């Protein structure tokens, strides 16, 4: 596949002239690339073959454990793994970190990781506009361990985070996942300290405002935990993304999921800097969710039911045009890193 793509790109090298490539048009306000930068890009692309791609993948696997998922606004982030895996791994619908034991990097490991990430990405860092601190719940780490790790990252990317670097490699803050249960162990002052070190936005898997559904999903904590955690983060000036798991619990939990999640979202101090993601449940191979549905005799919602659930929940939100949070679809099948 790649060999075919390269064979089609190679002839273009002879066709690049002072006016660029015949037939290639650029939209928007960006200036068209110069002849030399087009040639550079094509030489770079055609220089790869299957063997170099394999070596690249092997090098990636030496630096990172699998990057299971990111929030959609962070698909183009530069991932830095402060931790590996998930500290819970109990949720029946989630298989992202099943085979990865939870572990926190030591300060020296983290320093080494940052050097290796930079070396691996090379000029590709200019495509990455934020830092994502992996993995599933890096912010769950207690403050006495977490703050020194944040200081290392903040210091390492000082120029790119705080604006003294060139505009095209500027990083728009640090981002991370957090679960509500672990979030309750941090105060607004803790989050404030992390914000001062560069944290900008945190994505929390709410899944539902309906606690019986959370319990059935074996999600740690309650919606009340998420509420406390979001209030602390907003009080510290952070932006928040909340993920609602649409269709979860099928017909049995449909009404409870709608009513309690609506109530929950309406009560949250969210604004236009925040995002609500609607993520439809997707059956992943190996996830216990499907088996439990069958055992409990629960019917899944059909496409129309899922759509109605999503509409009913989102209608509780203040529109973003009036200062409410933005909403977006989160389709985990689209994710690659
Ligand atoms: S949903 Fe989040 S807390 Fe639950 S197992 Fe997956 S990563 Fe861990």
TL;DR of this structure?
With 337 residues, this protein is of the alpha/beta class. Helices cover 41% and strands 13% of the residues.
Shape verdict: globular
Query: What is the chains' assembly state?
Result: single chain
The CATH architecture classification of the largest domain is Alpha-Beta Barrel
Number of strands: 9
Helix content: 40-55%
Specify the structural class: alpha/beta
Ligands, ions, cofactors: iron/sulfur cluster
- Assess the beta-strand content as a share of residues: 5-15%
**CATH third-level topology of the largest domain:** TIM Barrel
How many distinct domains? 2
- Give me the Rg, rounded: 22 Å
Question: Could you name the CATH class of the largest domain?
Answer: Alpha Beta
Element-by-element helix/strand order:
HHHEEEHEHHEHHEHHEHEHHE
Largest sheet: 7 strands, parallel
| Helical stretch tally | 13
Task: Give an account of the 3D structure.
The structure is a single chain. The protein has 337 residues and is an alpha/beta fold. The chain folds into two domains: 1-48, no CATH class; 59-334, Aldolase class I (TIM Barrel, Alpha-Beta Barrel). The chain has 13 helices and nine strands. The chain has helices at 2-9, 35-46, 50-63, 107-121, 143-156, 158-162, 180-183, 188-196, 211-216, 223-235, 250-267, 289-295, 303-314, and strands at 78-81, 83-84, 103-104, 131-134, 174-178, 199-207, 239-246, 275-280, 326-329. The protein has a seven-stranded parallel β-sheet. A two-stranded antiparallel ribbon has the order 2-3. The chain binds iron/sulfur cluster. Residues 86, 88-91, 94, 96-97, 136, 179, 205, 219 line the site of iron/sulfur cluster (SF4).
